[in-house]
Every structure is written in structure tokens, then in C-alpha cells.
UniProtKB/TrEMBL annotation:
Keywords: Coiled coil, Ribonucleoprotein, Ribosomal protein. The lineage of its organism: Archaea, Thermoproteota, Thermoprotei, Sulfolobales, Sulfolobaceae. GO terms for molecular function: structural constituent of ribosome. Residues 57-84 form a coiled coil. NCBIfam families: PRK12277.1. This is Large ribosomal subunit protein eL13.
Amino acid sequence: MNPPTPIIKRPNYSFEYPHERKSTREGRGFSLGELKAVNLTPEKARKLGLRVDKRRKSVHQENIDALKKYLDELNKEKNTQSKA
């Protein structure tokens, strides 16, 4: 199972045309606020294979949802392996 990729919003520049603007891009890593929202420390996140960007301050709900889904899948895998 591959870890999720962080999504961040691109800045809006006045010289860009609206039809050429892309609203999001792949981020460098998950922010500390996003990790805190799912009760992860940066060290634990790195052990799970997640990228961490400690410089970024923004918190995006899409990233929190992706992290929750990833952690749920990890817990399901762990539970099925322990039962077998």
C-alpha cells in the first residue's frame, strides 16, 4: 500500500489566465497541523513512510481525510494479519 501524497493549493498570480491556472499541486509533505489532526507525531509519520513538511503552516481538509483513510487501511491490514 502506497502512502498518500499531500495536496496543496497553488498561489493565484495576477498575470495568469484563469483557464491556465491549476488549483492544486502535489506538496512536499504533510504539515504539522495535518499530522496533529490525526494524532500523529512527525517521527511516527516518517516511520509509516509519510513525507513531512515542517515549514508549511496550512492545514487542508483533503489531506486530513487522506491520512485518516490511510491509517484506517493500515489498521485493517494489521488486524487481519494478527487474526490469521
